[in-house]
Amino acid sequence: IQTHHRYGYCLVAELAGDRPAAATVETSEPAAETSELPAIAVLPFMDMSPSRDQDYFCEGLAEELIDALTHVDGLRVSCRSCSFQFRGAGVDLREVGRQLGVGSIVEGSVRRAGDQLRITVQLIDVATGYHKWSQRFERTFGDVFAIQDEIAAQVAMNLRGGASLSQREQRGLRRPPTSAEPYEYYLRGRESLHRMRPADLEQSRRMFEGAIELDADYAPAWAGLATVHALLYEWWGSKDEDMHRADRASQIAMELAPDLADAHVARGF
Q1: pLDDT above 50 for 26
Q2: SS3 call for 181
Q3: Which residues contact 235 (CB under 8 A, 6 or more apart)?
Q4: Does residue 266 contact residue 250 with C-beta atoms inside 8 Å?
Q5: Using CA of residue 252, residue 255, residue 256, residue 258, what is the dihedral sign?
Q6: What per-residue confidence (pLDDT) applies to 89?
Q7: CB 47 within 8 A of CB 58
Q8: ∠ at Cα 165 (160, 166), nearest 5°?
Q9: Nearest-angstrom CA–CA distance, 49 and 84
Q10: Angle CA(199)–CA(203)–CA(205) in degrees, nearest 5?
């Protein structure tokens, strides 16, 4: 094997002898089975607040729903990076469904004024363009976790023809508990994390640390902090301090919430 710089590896060994006959192998074609499962995409919610400053919350709400719906048996959920490319008003939901290969789409809007929230959610059938379910929630920001749980449960049950969720699925819909203030810090940190520039990573670090100062047992914030320092180590300086902080924060996240996917991702990273 030769190394070709900036291209990859090349097999240069000489081959001798007759080519063996192709073996007949029976396959179970799992892709065909998978395609029959219900598939859904969650789009970023629209910010309808007077000051238009709730993008971080709109993205966070959609991400939380994506995370929750992955715990529902028999449901395929489009990943964040695929779904979030279709942001903004006026998107053709049928085209979105075709490109993502999903039969249903969740979209909605957020209007926040002080501590008051108004969240509108629709579950759309891609084939017909009709609503399968829609609801408006008007509550305080402190009720945001209950709203998320209710939205995820309603979406899942509608996709399964009204069948109730198992206890395991219901547990999977719930994120680790905290109060509204550290959760808001966490959402602000996660919004800037995806941009991965030094200034954005510093913003994320401050937000995750702010959440931890308010709630030292909030595992998602520890997982986010670990990811920040891992990214800083990999892309911005390879400082031992960042590696040590990533190691410690990811261990704490795993200890606090061993079933949290974010904790496992942060630890693996």
Answers
A1: no
A2: helix
A3: 196
A4: yes
A5: positive
A6: 62
A7: yes
A8: 135
A9: 20
A10: 115
